[in-house]
Amino acid sequence: MAAVAVVLAAPVVVPAALDCSRARSNAEKMLCSNSRLALADERMAYAFRDAIRRGVDPAALMQTQRRWTIEIRDACNEVEFILKAYENRTADLENP
Questions:
Q1: Residues above pLDDT 70, as percent of the chain
Q2: Residue 54: its pLDDT value, please?
Q3: Which of 28, 26, 9 is closest to 18 using CA atoms?
Q4: In terms of residue numbers, what domain contains 12?
Q5: Which long-range contacts does 4-7 make (Cβ < 8 Å, 24+ apart)?
Q6: 45, 14 contact by CB (below 8 A)
């Protein structure tokens, strides 16, 4: 039982917040300049962390997150599309 408590108390790696001084893609630049996008990113980070806590394989999760970032988020060029992409990804993370 103590081992379970230790595992549940262990810190969970959450994708780091975007360093806006290094924003490269159009999506990253919009994320840095739009509070709605920043909030959506924060919500997704929490969903990501919670997915790991529920037992989702961290390596697989990181792989799907990288693919989502490149193929979905960075392909968006408008705030509303990026917001929808974040909403969908967060829902995917919350409902495996």
A1: 82
A2: 94
A3: 28
A4: 2-94
A5: none
A6: yes
What tokens appear for 65 in the block? Answer: 């997150």
The answer to whether 86 and 46 have CB atoms below 8 angstroms apart is no
Two structure tokens written together for 56: 């989702």
One-letter identity of residue 95: N
Task: Give 14-59 pLDDT, tens digit per residue.
Answer: 444 678 888 888 899 999 999 999 999 999 999 999 999 999 999 9
- 58-68 in b/e burial notation, b at 16+ Cβ within 10 A? eeebeebbeeb
| Residue 15 per-residue DSSP state | P
Say how many domains are in the chain: 1
In 3D space, the residue among 36, 43, 55 whose CA is nearest the CA of residue 15 turns out to be 43
Please say whether the beta carbons of 18 and 31 come within 8 A.
yes
Share of the chain above pLDDT 90, in %: 66
